[in-house]
Specification:
The chain has 115 residues and is α+β, with helices and mostly antiparallel strands. It has 2 helices and 6 strands; from the N terminus they run βαββββαβ. A hairpin with a 2-residue loop joins β3 and β4. It is flat and about 40 Å long.
Amino acid sequence: MRYLAIYKTEETGTPPSAEHMARMGALIDEMTKAGVLLSTEGCLPSSRGFRARRKKGKVIVTDGPFTETKEIIGGFALLEVQSREEAVRWTERFLEVAGDGESEVRLLNEPQPRG
């Protein structure tokens, strides 16, 4: 089972401390060695991004920062686990290291073998 974990947090404009990065690095190493972490990335500030929305056939692009949003996407992780319960356990561990915020964890649609 593959899950996409999207981490949402308040944008502070302050980069993580060296200690925080070391703790996150250790967790990433642990998850990689356990074979559950397929990919992960943190996001740069929303001022470096944009949003695109399509409505009534027209695409509108809005540059960041996204000050009207209380929480922004801070990063993501792609997990491969044996069960929902395992995904919950790893997400809890991640939030212990990441701090305040929330992770939206979504089961990915896996193509079914034909035959």
